[in-house]
Amino acid sequence: MDFFERLKGVMKPLTFLLLVVISLSCNPVGELIHSEEVLQWEPDIVLFDSLNAVEQAGPETILVTGSSSVRLWDSIHTDLAPYEVMQRGYGGARLTDFNHYAGRIIPPGPFKAILVFVANDISGGDNDRTQKEVVMLFKTLTGQVRERNPGTPLFWIETTPTPSRWHAIDQIREANERISRYCEKQPDLFFIPTADIFTGEDQLPDSTWFRNDMLHLNREGYLIWSERIKEVLREEGISP
Questions:
Q1: pTM over 0.70
Q2: CA 18 to chain CA mean position, Å
């Protein structure tokens, strides 16, 4: 806000206020920064604060963070072994609130790698982000990670094609493709593709891998997810 502070001294109060409002309204991170949609996650983030105070990352630690698929991954330490894992997942995380809390979710530290899976920005609902907004928010997140964790490899896990959200698959695919193309052009930024392992020969999502809600992975789903994640980590030189 240094720029705004300088302007404040030379502009009339009402003009300054208008400028701030316009700036935030053009920014999906800023527009919801104090909304109930974002602040509802404060209790979850407070828990992360407590965990970060006692659970310190080391040079071999891989941080896996994101939305409910990460939070519900009870077998993560076993499934991703022999990698050393720190787990930080919460509810229905979207990139807007994730960006708002990123400094508390992803603490500065000597992580071997950071893996992010946030899959709720496009779900087929009225409050969906556009594909362009999702990519912009992703770029904002990578900027934050680069600032606090410079040189740490960052992996984005592709949004899973789920039966419950199949009606939004075209938008989900486009956002995935845009993020994948962006990752290809950036150093230490990687895309973990998963759509192929969760769809059958008919190119439809395979319900075999999902819980009854047809959104979250079941035990078998987590196993094939973890194998793909470890495969890409090894390909990019991140060894246990």
A1: yes
A2: 32
